[in-house]
Amino acid sequence: MAEAADSRVLRADWVLPVCGPPIGNGAVRIEGGRIAAVGGADEVFRREDCVEDLGRVALLPGLVNAHAHLELSVYAGRLPPSSLWDWLPRLIELRREAEPARNEVDAASRAAWDCLSAGVTCIGDISRNGRVFAALDDVPIRQVRFLELISGAAEPPRDPDELGLALDAMGASADASRPSGRNWGVSPHSPYTVTARHLDAVVRLAVERRLPLTMHVAETMEEREWLEHRTGRLAEFVARHPALNVERMFKGDVLGLLERMSHVAAGSGVCVVRKAARESAEERPAGDDAIVTAGSRSRRTAAPMVFAHCNYVRDDEIAWLGARSWKRRSGRGISVVFCPRAHRFFGHRDHPWRRMLAAGVNVCLGSDSLASNESLSILDELRFLRRIAPECPAATLLEMATHNGAAALGLRDEIGAIRVGLAADLIAIPLLSDCGGDEFDPAAAILDGGEHVSHVYVGGVRRQITG
Question: Number of structural domains, the chain?
Fold first, then answer.
């Protein structure tokens, strides 16, 4: 990842910057691994240029998979489509089999290469214990490595102190990792597997170290029921795992959870509690005595937060997320990552991603894992969305898979668009339909077609890919 390409120019029938309109007969100049110029070929070309003519392709930013579990790749095809609460116990049993560590590491490396071949140049990968990360060092894909916390788990990290020590042992820091394309993050798994105090501490850790944070939120209706009432199928699941200290988990609605995390991140020293869901003293952020009503709403957050799934959120929660998106203000903000085909795998109702986009939420795309999906290809996710939502402009879908994902992971000043100064993470996809005419839409042609990625560049370096 540290190597940088010499100066070169890539020409393509179409260049899709994402941050601007498509450019016919376009070109991109790369210098030192970064984009030095973009525009029409006649504008970009210089007499002394080394030009690589890609021909009849669309050149676009590398795709971003903002939510993946590479270590679960070894379980591909072993679990049938089902509800999350049927699937999760079966997955837990599979992970208890002999030598899961070696199998998971080997499969994770292969899956990362497959991602790269499918045009994913950046991945937000969550690992329970971080064992897979070293195996990914040789894969030239940009990574945000999220280390996961489950309170009281059988193996570390089991608490925020162990999480911090594990990050230290891996050399994880916001600044030191950026030049190598290895960035770090933290992942409190969910509100039903992390205690309220641990959640507060992990949020503070993310802020102090300037690391992105991701968490599974509102994934099922059972989660909502359990958060508010401690009843239902999730209550039965938690009861079967006594290491999960129910009395210390957050209790309240999803909006209360989101606001709690936002206030802790902002360092306000005050926790918002909705009237219908007063927290116990044990559930309050440590050191906080003041409780205010829902009328006092913080609009600041000091660390990028990526909430995974959000399949079952109310309109007021969508409005809250939209008001705190990076699109609505400068600095780091809140995003939602949607995993379309995993959503289908678990049989969820329609996802509110369209309403989220309309409300200004930064919605990006992820694949989840091969234990709940056919592939980790974001191009496959895009084409699936195109089929089920043909009314959504192809350019909007493409933005979700590039610029929005980069912003969610805290990398919007590094990748996600073809813009001068950004890293030259680029992919090319052949165009089979007629490329001419005023009505031609290259983004739609990519998503409506079935062609595989033909070229992948990470940091301006062309990477060998498999078919």
Answer: 2
Other beta carbons less than 10 A from residue 369's beta carbon: 25
Determine, yes or no, domain membership for 176.
yes
Q: What is the DSSP letter of 97?
A: S
Q: How far apart, in whole angstroms, are the C-alpha atoms of residue 46 and residue 218?
A: 53
Alpha-carbon span 447 to 381, nearest angstrom: 10
Question: What angle is formed at CA 368 by the lines to CA 2 and CA 83, rounded to 5 degrees?
Answer: 170
Which residue segment(s) compose the domain that 457 sits in? 8-61+417-462
Tens-place pLDDT, residues 325-343:
866 554 468 999 999 999 9
Which residues lie below 8 Å from residue 260, measured CB to CB, with a gap of 6+?
A: 196, 199, 200, 250, 252, 271, 272, 273, 285
Rounded CA gap, 14 and 437, in Å? Answer: 13
Helix (H, G, I), strand (E, B) or coil at 20: coil
Contacts of 445 (CB under 8 A, 6+ apart): 58, 431, 432, 433, 435
Contacts of range 325-332, beta carbons closer than 8 Å, 24 or more positions apart: 325/360, 325/361, 325/362, 326/362, 326/407, 326/412, 327/360, 327/362, 328/360, 329/299, 332/301, 332/302, 332/303, 332/304, 332/410
Q: What is the pLDDT of residues 199-225, one digit of tens each?
A: 999 999 999 999 999 999 999 999 999
Is pTM beyond 0.85 here? Answer: yes
Quick one: residue 25, left, alpha or beta (phi over 0 = left, psi -120 to 50 = alpha)? left
Amino acid identity of residue 132, one-letter, is V
Kindly state whether residues 327 and 376 are assigned to the same domain.
yes
* Distance, CA of 33 to CA of 6 (rounded, Å): 7
Cβ(194)–Cβ(188) below 8 Å: yes
